[in-house]
Amino acid sequence: MSNPANTPTSTHLPTPPPAGISVEERESMRRQGVLLTSFAEIYNWGRANSIWPLQFGLACCAIEMICVAAARFDIARFGAEIFRASPRQADLMIMNGTVTKKMLPQVVRLWNQMGEPKFCIVMGACASSGGPFREGYNVVKGIDRFIPVDVYVPGCPPRPEALLHGLMEIQKKMREEPLTGPDAPRYFRKDTTCEYPIPEFGEHDLVPPYNSELWKPPAPIVREGK
Ligand code: SF4
User: Fold this and answer.
1) Mean of per-residue pLDDT scores for the chain
2) Count of domains in the chain?
3) What are the start-end ranges of the H helices in 32-134?
4) Is 153 near ligand 1, meaning CB less than 6 Å away?
5) Does residue 218 lie in a domain region?
């Protein structure tokens, strides 16, 4: 498989260029040694190349995440090698394993303690949907029921290359994020919250069983003739 380090997307400035300048014009000026940019572009470029992931692991997928930080795959090539043990110093949560109902309140609390702007990669079948333990009474059937997810990395477990691909997708999202207007991220808008409800154990299950602003139960399938 191709080496992700050879892809140009991790460090290149995004398109489109600042307003009023065409891509060709900017490229032409860049060849002359003149770099034209905007505040948003520089801000997003810096953010995308200095990600600090939260250092924690939930299950076997965490072993693959650890491999990504080790010498063979070397996440440092993407500017994201500083795994932080404190959520207040991290801006990327990698959900890397089975989320049990007992663990869930702590996971949501960690997410709330991370400062904005923050992003979430869901790694593997368990964190995406419950995976092989989906029918288990004690397993959350997808962390996206409780916190917002930016990128899903499928697999059981996903290989380190797949996680690196997910990281590059997050970087792409960061580089293309507008800072103003209706598409501005949640932390720049007054009508959204950056804190998410922490579920508690009720009589039979978690209360609430999901965050209704993030996830809705699928509509029941109605078969014709029944
Ligand atoms: S998706 Fe597979 S490898 Fe990852 S935590 Fe679940 S069972 Fe383990």
Assistant:
1) 87
2) 1
3) 39-48, 61-69, 104-113, 124-129
4) no
5) no
